[in-house]
């Protein structure tokens, strides 16, 4: 019997994890580990088990494209060699112990049961023997009675009684298994029985014959010998009863012993099962719990050579391998954490710089803020941004931070082959230079034959800078310039830092290109607006001034001739021309000062119509139907307002109308209609004049900017209708078009 095991103590077993245990134990132990550790333990266990299964590498919890998935820890941590463990020998197996214990218990129980069965059998046969031995006395007395009847001449059953006596004695001697009937095996009982049988056969039975032969008055000798015979029979019965009582006591003792053996056997079986099975299982369970709590230094004691001893050895191998894997995991987690922190810093820098570059700034402020952020991020002591000059092969320093004033003054412009900065710009080489060494910048375009040993120290190196990182700024149009970071201590940029700086250089290039395009767009807008102003001046003020010039010439001629009547006719015309020109100038000033924000179109239209009513006697009707349409953008509102102002100006100047209707509808599409009942005009004649009427041309250009349709319908004497349609929503936007026809054109 194996003694109880000692408490759990660490045991170093430098062997690999047992494959037989791995498929069931390893996944449960590793379920609380980080995902990579559980995957590695399961992968290692499945690799060593009989059923090998494929495992895909776990995806890193951070799904940013720049974050590569963590490699399998089984490849990062060397796996311990696996040695298959054979089953224990037959005599050491737990199954052998259990079977042996069961057979011993069965043998003991069968022995005790057989003994009690034998005792009960003997007791049953002794009981029948007591009955038959007791019947000897009865039959002996019955023989005496029948003998007396026979001597008196009465009918008797003497022969029958004597035959029964002989039969009873014969049964007691031979025994009868069917009843069962047999005398106890005690020799004294058999000796006493022999005496009783001998007394019957030698004394009592012959005496019956002698008594039958004597006369009736002679006393019977059988009756005289009967008490002694009965006494012998009583002794036999007493001896059998005493032996039966002894056997009964023995049966009770056997039953008590059987109960005691059953109790002790049960206790022994429980103890052995606890020692052989339950205690090892509890140890394994406690080991699993502690392993789940990441106590990988735990080792189970191996105190037996049975199956649980093999399991303990496999557990210890598994714990050793998990401990090794977890140590590797901790190192990789620390590495990945550091890498993740670095990449987070890179992303924060990229986001911060990109957000700053998207803000509206001038080029110098944009580059200065960009340079300041990079210097803070990379702990640089100085920096500069240089742009390509209009002169080929020249670099102009746009901004600088942390550089000495004399260095900035000396290098406010430089050639592209002068130093590392020029090389980075010219050859698109990411330059990380050590400024302490006497290095000459190589010329990749020509072989000068200069000796590098004769080169001089770079100018920035003389100013105390030990390192330089230079990156080219590219745009879709080409090279824009470069930026550089200066370090007073040697500084090394890894591959990720270089990639980040190259990306930031691209962002800076895009931002600077955006500024250039925005400036170009503003210049183009100014040119277009100046063109519209010029056209407006030509259509209004220029014609008025031409009229005034003509009247002044007539006035000079009339003055020279002294024609006062003609002078009196010309002066009112001059006053009318001046007032008309004043109104045109005022209208142009009001039009070009108009600035709208989203939602102000209604108020602006109402103000424009009200001003039109004040300027002329024409009745103006305004109808605005918003109809819950989407508001126009501010630039769209401004162009619509310009079209309305130009249309009303044409009505005021040329239509001589009594009534004008302005209708604005904002629904699925946006529509503006201006219709008057004035003189109208011939569209065909107007088409032959080309751009003679500048106002209509201005309205067409405004409509083209809106990607809208402008329709002008007019007939002489029947008024004019100007319609502006701006499609939107799900409908396809038609090509900008205008029409001026004699017949009314249907609106879409």
CATH class of the largest domain: Mainly Alpha
Beta content comes to: 5-15%
What coarse outline follows from CA principal-axis ratios?
A: elongated
- Number of domain units: 5
The name CATH uses for the topology of the largest domain is Four Helix Bundle (Hemerythrin (Met), subunit A)
Number of strands: 12
Structural class based on helices, strands and sheet pairing: alpha+beta
Along the chain, the helix and strand elements come as HHHHHHHHHEEHEHEHEEHHHEHEEHHEEE
Number of helices: 18
SSE inventory with pairings:
Elements: H1 22-29, H2 35-48, H3 73-76, H4 94-151, H5 158-174, H6 187-213, H7 221-292, H8 307-357, H9 363-378, E1 382-388, E2 394-401, H10 405-410, E3 413-415, H11 420-427, E4 431-434, H12 459-462, E5 467-475, E6 478-487, H13 495-561, H14 564-592, H15 601-615, E7 619-625, H16 634-655, E8 659-666, E9 670-676, H17 683-688, H18 694-706, E10 709-714, E11 720-726, E12 737-741
Helix pairs in contact: 1-2, 2-8, 4-5, 4-7, 6-7, 7-8, 8-9, 8-13, 9-13, 13-14, 15-16, 16-18
């Amino acid at each position: 019997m194996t003694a109880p095991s000692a408490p759990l103590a660490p045991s170093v077993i430098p062997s690999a994890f047992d494959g037989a245990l791995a498929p069931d134990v390893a996944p449960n132990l590793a379920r609380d580990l980080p995902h990579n550790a559980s995957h590695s333990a399961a992968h290692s266990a499945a690799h060593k088990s009989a059923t090998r299964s494929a495992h895909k590498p776990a995806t890193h919890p951070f799904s940013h494209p720049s974050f590569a998935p963590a490699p399998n820890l089984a490849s990062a941590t060397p796996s311990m060699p696996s040695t298959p463990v054979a089953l224990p020998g037959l005599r050491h197996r737990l199954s052998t112990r259990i079977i042996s214990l069961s057979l011993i218990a069965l043998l003991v129980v069968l022995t005790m049961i057989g003994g009690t069965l034998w005792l009960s059998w003997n007791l049953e046969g002794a009981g029948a023997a007591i009955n038959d031995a007791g019947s000897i006395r009865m039959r002996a007395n019955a023989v005496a009675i029948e003998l007396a009847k026979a001597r008196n001449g009465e009918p008797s059953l003497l022969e029958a009684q004597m035959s029964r006596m002989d039969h009873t004695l014969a049964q007691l001697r031979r025994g009868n298994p069917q009843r069962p009937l047999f005398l106890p095996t005690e020799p004294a009982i058999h000796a006493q029985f022999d005496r009783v049988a001998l007394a019957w056969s030698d004394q009592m039975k012959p005496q019956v014959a002698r008594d039958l032969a004597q006369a009736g008055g002679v006393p019977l000798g059988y009756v005289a010998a009967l008490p002694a015979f009965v006494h012998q029979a009583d002794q036999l019965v007493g001896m059998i009863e005493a032996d039966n009582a002894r056997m009964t006591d023995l049966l009770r003792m056997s039953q008590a012993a059987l109960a005691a053996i059953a109790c002790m056997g049960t206790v022994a079986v429980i103890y052995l099962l606890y020692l052989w099975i339950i205690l090892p299982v509890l140890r394994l369970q406690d080991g699993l719990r502690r392993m789940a709590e990441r106590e990988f230094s735990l080792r189970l004691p191996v105190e037996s050579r049975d199956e649980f001893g093999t399991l303990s050895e496999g557990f210890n191998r598994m714990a050793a391998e998990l401990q090794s894997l977890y140590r590797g995991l901790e190192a990789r987690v620390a590495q990945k954490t550091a890498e993740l922190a670095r990449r987070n810093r890179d992303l924060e820098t990229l986001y911060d710089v990109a957000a700053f570059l998207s803000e509206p700034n001038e080029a110098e402020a944009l580059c200065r803020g960009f340079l300041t952020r990079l210097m803070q991020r990379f702990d640089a002591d100085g920096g500069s941004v240089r742009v390509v000059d209009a002169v080929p092969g020249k670099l102009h320093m746009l901004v600088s931070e942390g550089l000495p004033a004399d260095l900035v003054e000396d290098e406010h412009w430089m050639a592209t082959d002068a130093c590392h900065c020029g090389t980075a710009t010219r050859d698109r080489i990411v330059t990380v230079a050590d400024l302490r060494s006497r290095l000459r910048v190589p010329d990749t375009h020509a072989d000068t034959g200069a000796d590098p040993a004769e080169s001089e120290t770079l100018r920035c190196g003389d100013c105390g800078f030990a390192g330089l990182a230079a990156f080219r700024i590219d745009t879709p149009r080409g090279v824009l310039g470069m930026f550089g970071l200066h370090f007073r201590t040697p500084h090394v940029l890894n591959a990720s830092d270089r990639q980040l700086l190259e990306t930031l250089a691209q962002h800076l290039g895009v931002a600077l290109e955006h500024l250039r395009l925005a400036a170009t767009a503003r210049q183009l807008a100014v040119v277009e607006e100046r063109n519209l102003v010029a056209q407006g001046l030509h259509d209004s003020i220029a014609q008025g001034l031409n009229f005034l010039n003509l009247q002044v010439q007539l006035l000079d001629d009339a003055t020279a001739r002294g024609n006062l009547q003609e002078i009196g006719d010309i002066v009112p015309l001059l006053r009318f021309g001046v007032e008309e020109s004043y109104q045109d100038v005022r209208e142009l000033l009001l039009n070009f000062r108009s600035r709208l924000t989203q939602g102000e179109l209604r108020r602006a239209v109402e103000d424009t119509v009200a001003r039109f009513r004040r300027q002329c006697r024409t009745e103006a009707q305004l109808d605005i139907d918003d109809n819950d349409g989407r508001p126009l953008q501010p630039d769209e509102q401004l162009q619509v307002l310009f079209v309305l102002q130009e249309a009303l100006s044409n009505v005021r100047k040329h239509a001589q109308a009594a009534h004008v209707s302005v209708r604005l509808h904002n629904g699925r599409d946006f529509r503006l209609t201006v219709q008057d009942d004035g003189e109208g005009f011939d569209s065909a004649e107007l088409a032959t004049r080309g751009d003679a009427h500048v106002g209509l041309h201005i309205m067409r250009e405004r409509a083209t900017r809106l990607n809208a349709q402008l329709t002008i319908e007019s007939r002489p004497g029947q008024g004019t209708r100007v319609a502006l349609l701006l499609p939107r929503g799900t409908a396809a936007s038609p090509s900008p078009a205008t029409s001026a026809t004699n017949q009314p054109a249907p609106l879409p």
